[in-house]
Amino acid sequence: MKFTTIPTMVALCLPFATAKVCLSQSDVTTLSTHFGDLVSGYTQKLANQTLTTNFMDYSESINTLIDSAGTTPNALLGLTFTSRANFETLSAAQPSVPFQVQNTWYNCDTITIRWLSTQSPQPVVGISVLQTVYRPRQGNATNFKINEVWAEFDSAAWLIDSGFTVTPPASNREKREVTFEA
């Protein structure tokens, strides 16, 4: 073998050695399903399989629910969950709700989910963007975990489903103002 052939072979193999591992449709389906299952039937085991330890979540909608529509002052902007442990603590205390993935779109490391929660009396629709990282582990259904989530949904409908009431204006001429009562 000539020495000029070795550098050529190394150059040809180098892109494959440094290529980024990207999500597959199977990974997207698994992570989208697990994300929905964390809402509809939370378990710590599933959270550990699905979320990184330094998981973060940003959602003004969830912050509105935590804030109970202004009855317990809480900042709406900023982090909602600061870690997987924080998510686990707050999620374990929440009742399960129906959650259906309606559509998914993805690129190499990000999944966007349009979802529906058929709660009563108001259905809730939302969009969640899941940023993933490659974390190969034995025993998991995918080699990716969710590292960050950005989510928004109809928090007014969720509040109504949680027992809050909406008081409409007395007439159409009045300024439209929505108040919530627990």
Automatic annotation (TrEMBL):
Signal peptide location: 1-19
Organism (species): Friedmanniomyces simplex
UniProt keyword terms in alphabetical order: Signal
UniProt-recorded name of the protein: NTF2-like domain-containing protein
Ranges for domain NTF2-like: 22-164
